[in-house]
Amino acid sequence: MAMFFTFLTFFKNSMMAYPECSYNIVHCTRSLTFLMWTLPIVFFLFIGHTSQLDEATEYPPLFEDALGTFFENLEFSKRNSRIEQFGLNEFDFIIVGAGSAGSVVASRLSEETKWSVLLIEAGGEEQFIMDVPLLANMLQFTDANWKYKTMPSNNYCLGFVNRQCNFPRGKVMGGSSVLNYMIYTRGNRRDYDAWADAGNFGWNSDIVHKYFLKSEDANITLQDPDFHQKGGLLSISEIPFKSILAKSFVQAGYEAGYPVRDLNGRSQIGFNFHQLTMKNGLRHSTNVAFIHPVIKRKNLHIRKNSQVTKILFDETGRKAIGVEYYRKKKKYRVLAKKEVIISGGAINSPQLLMLSGIGPKNHLISKGIKVLRDLPVGRNLMDHVALGGLQFIVNDTNTISRDKILGNANIIHDYLKYHNGPITIPGGTEALAFFDLKQPNNADGHPNLELLFINGALGSDETLRKNFGINDTLYNSAFKKIEQKNAYMILPMIMRPKSKGWIELKDQNPFRYPAIYPNYFSDESDLDIIVGGVRISQQLLETNAMKRINATLWDAPILGCKHFKFDSDEYWKCAARHLPFTIYHLSGTCKMGPIGDPTAVVDPNLRVQGFEGLRVIDASIMPEVPAAHTNAPTIMIAEKGSDLIKKSWGIII
Questions:
Q1: Is 49 a catalytic residue?
Q2: For 365-478, where are the E strands, in sequence order?
Q3: What is the pLDDT of residues 163-177, one digit of tens each?
Q4: Complete domains list, the chain, with CATH
Q5: What pTM, to 2 d.p., does this model score?
């Protein structure tokens, strides 16, 4: 009964947080949508899991007060979307995709009040539940995910269902910045200097640095003051809660002789806890950061649940003049007086270009598509891939488990009231480390390896297994016995991959997913990076920090690799082919390069080569993927791309 009254009090406080509901049902729609998502999850968090607690458990005092404080700080009333206007059919700029890049571009271009801007998104609105960090790994099972899969392979993804890797991509306002784990890393200066050295004038490290700072509102304690800034639209916070295991990982790095430093500072070699796109304990997506504050601009128009299927051109076939899109199975056309900007990401952007006649000539002809220009669209696909399954058993030190956390009323109380505690851990990952295996003694090296620390293991949380699609046979043989044990996982990740894949159309149908070939490990030197990461992870076991928690390697061999001696280099290379975990950093499929570069799709101004009024602004333009989680570099690209557009139309920056 007490729980029932607590739930009623929660509902009352929730409605009081939205006084607009008392006088205007239209303004209340957003609030009611929020409650539709929130009430069930709070019921699940607080009431559903309390059945696991002793009946005599005393619930935290003033729990309903905590909820009230939580809603006051959320300020969800500011998130109300304007009613979409479908009568208008001509705008100055059309932006396709409201993801990590498109949301930024729409926000920046609409700063010019004389310009009309249309932002088109295939998905719907970001919901509150998507912003709770701990639940990050559950979002892949929602409609906010495109749910792409790679084509079956005999060389990688061998331990996954149908030998296919899952490739999550955001289909929602905010795109993949809503699905990711919120990790904010920028990369190394050499990444961007290499872009410039390849002929991409204006993209060196000094220039892009100011665009990283432009977005940032830094709220971190350990920082290099020359590399951070306050006052931007995007909140960057250090992870609010640090578990014993994560502290042991970072301390182990220090004891092993590596620096603990701001990994977004002057150098990137070393260990630290995550910096995150987070504000007040909630995800700070590009939608929340860049669109919500400007949603009432009269010159900014947003059309959600609308999938663009074709770019429209004038009679010359060289000038983009609009797009065609479908909403609720009905076709629409909208025109752009100035430019069409494609920000669909590394899968959707090349797919749309190829459907519109821009791509590899022979491939388009084979699909019956009229060729407007022969460009290497869809080539140069890159990703940061890691070895899954490198797990370590510990003593009685508790690991992060969703059931453990959500079954603890005190933890929920602290999160709702103080925006703290383990619910702020994004999907269980808390810390990382970068290394340069080519120059192991250089504290200012260029990272080619990352170790990503996960509090928990494949057997600790069934969600992780389903995220990657591990098949039952492999899972049962190697990981099922770990289900009842405390453990952590380290993902050794290739940061500067030499292997590159490609994306192709299956046919002319814009609603059929493209064929994705990541081509992992086609350059076998990438596997040497994986092995190097395993060895460093094992070296950490010799530190006092790891000995205190009695960390030991889980040594059940992976089915399919038992013919190799366990823990040999060849065993780990085999394991990587069976369990290659994508870190969702797809990039490079509309490569940027100087005019005339036969490998490039866009020029350094991000204009599609050979066309007027058409640009691509997203992670697909990266010539080489930087040694970073790619959300921050993608936002930087959008910031710089917005300025490039403004300058080309006479705006003084």
A1: no
A2: 373-374, 385-387, 391-393, 429-435, 449-454
A3: 999 999 999 999 999
A4: 2-79 (no CATH), 132-172+233-286+383-531+538-582 (3.30.560.10)
A5: 0.90
